[in-house]
């Protein structure tokens, strides 16, 4: 990895300068964090699995007309993405009460919501990602009203599609986080889905047992964390070549 220029390193991924203009290489780490980095650890093989899972879901969303930053997977831990200007907003879609939502409203975890609820959070570790409303987003210029309408429309379509996809696999899509960015193509600017979609930023429960198949197992000190990620990949039919092997190996393109 030292031969390439690092652009940014986050809690779960590293971005490197891409091989072509307007591209980046997104490297998936095994590092795991929770509660705004207060809890840190490692989930062996998470980077490999999240790379494959996110590749699969981004490709499926592209097939239904959702524009994304994803170009192609490069190897076990890396994918080529388009360089975008990330909008500093996290969009959280909640289909079932869980986590902080249950705590805030006193609703038992696992209670179905009357309809899907969309929340906005300002991306800032220093401020603990505060919840915001549309007025904040437009007043501070983080996104225009037109961009926000486009983001909301895509978010609803993504939720409908992913809910159905996971349902067919016996998985309940409880909630998930999305990020979007501006893709500049000449004089045109497009809003595209960015970041990743994986058990790191989705709550995924087995429909029959409500067993957690996501990062909540790490957050709550449950066992079988690695196996939960593997189970999601297995149901999607995308375990790495040869099955769950040597996930610690750092496969990179130099």
Annotated CATH homologous superfamily of the largest domain: ATP-grasp fold, B domain
Number of strands: 14
Instruction: Output the helix-strand order.
Output: EEEEEHEEEEHEEHHEEEHH
Main CATH class of the largest domain: Alpha Beta
The average pLDDT is 93
CATH topology of the largest domain: the name is D-amino Acid Aminotransferase, Chain A, domain 1
Radius of gyration: 18 Å
* Count of discrete domains: 2
Bulk shape: globular
Mind telling me which CATH architecture of the largest domain this is?
Answer: 2-Layer Sandwich
Q: Give the biggest sheet.
A: 7 strands, antiparallel
* Helix/sheet category: alpha+beta
How far apart are the termini? 7 Å
Number of contiguous helices: 6
Low-confidence stretches: 246-254
Assess the beta-strand content as a share of residues: 25-35%
Helix content: 25-40%
Structure write-up:
This protein has 254 residues and is an alpha+beta fold. It has two domains: 6-84 and 224-236, 2-Layer Sandwich (Phosphorylase Kinase, domain 1); 85-206, D-amino Acid Aminotransferase, Chain A, domain 1, CATH 3.30.470. It has six helices and 14 strands. It has helices at 46-63, 99-105, 134-139, 145-167, 216-219, 225-236; strands at residues 6-9, 13-17, 23-28, 31-34, 39-42, 70-73, 78-82, 85-86, 89-96, 112-122, 131-132, 171-185, 188-194, 202-206. Strands 8, 9, 10, 11, 12, 13 and 14 form a seven-stranded antiparallel beta sheet that branches. Strands 1-2-3-7-6 form a five-stranded antiparallel beta sheet. A hairpin with a 2-residue loop joins strand 12 (171-185) and strand 13 (188-194). Helix 1 (46-63) packs parallel to helix 6. The N and C termini lie close together (7 Å). 36% of the residues are buried.
